[in-house]
TrEMBL record:
Gene Ontology biological process terms in this record: phosphorelay signal transduction system; regulation of DNA-templated transcription
Domain Response regulatory: 10-123
GO MF annotation, one: DNA binding
Domain HTH luxR-type: 141-201
Key words of the record: DNA-binding, Transcription, Transcription regulation
Keyword Transcription regulation: yes
Protein name, entry field: Response regulator
The organism of origin for this protein: Bradyrhizobium rifense
Length: 206
């Protein structure tokens, strides 16, 4: 981190690729973050109990053990936003990560400056929480504030990529939120969902 800049906080990182880890560390330090890298989830969890990171960046290995780390962080009331990265991402994995408390899901290969931007956005949102705001669909489980925002953009006719740009998230993350919204609403697709929202009948059962 440049010596004349005040720290914006610590970012905990698990990243097995040495080149990516070095690039991320350098970019985050240039953006005034202190970076602490960990070899595994157990060491990160142990340190998280004694410190208060501004953000956590978790690599998702093939065994998906990062989800366990994410759940433990939430169980232990670590309020830092957690971003999950994966070289083998899928919609199902993104949905699981979001359900477990991830703020964003980023597919590899990624551009380092994009990750730093997503970390900035996640931290900005976390310090101005809107957790009391939830949105309901008739007869359905309530949507979270973030799901409500995604739904509002989808209802305005935006594509996943357009929503991702508006919300400073990855397109895969938006796909994950969309899948979660559809599941809660019992809708097969966005068209069915919008019919319910705008009072044009219940989702199709065909």
């Amino acid at each position: 981190m440049p010596g004349n800049m005040l720290s914006k906080g610590e970012v905990f990182v698990i990243e097995t690729d040495a080149a990516s880890r070095e690039q991320l560390s350098n970019a985050l330090q240039q953006s005034a973050y202190d970076v602490i890298c960990f070899a595994d989830g157990a060491s990160l969890l142990s340190e998280a109990k004694a410190r208060m990171p501004a953000c956590v960046l978790l690599e998702m290995p093939p065994d998906r053990s990062a989800l366990d780390v994410l759940k433990r962080l939430r169980e232990e009331n670590c309020m830092a936003p957690v971003l999950v990265t994966s070289a083998n991402g899928s919609i199902a994995m993104a949905v699981d990560a979001i359900k477990s408390g991830a703020a964003d899901f980023i597919e590899k290969p990624f551009r380092t400056h994009d990750v730093v931007g997503r970390i900035d956005a996640a931290i900005d949102e976390s310090v101005q929480p809107d957790s009391s705001r939830q949105r309901w669909l008739p007869g359905c489980e309530p949507l979270t504030a973030r799901e409500g925002d995604v739904l509002a953009h989808l209802a305005a006719g935006l594509t996943n990529k357009e929503v991702a740009r508006r919300m400073h998230l990855s397109a895969r993350t938006i796909e994950g939120y969309r899948a979660s919204i559809l599941k809660k609403a019992g809708a097969r697709n966005v068209t069915d969902l919008l019919r319910r929202i705008f009072g044009l009948g219940s989702p199709s059962q065909a």
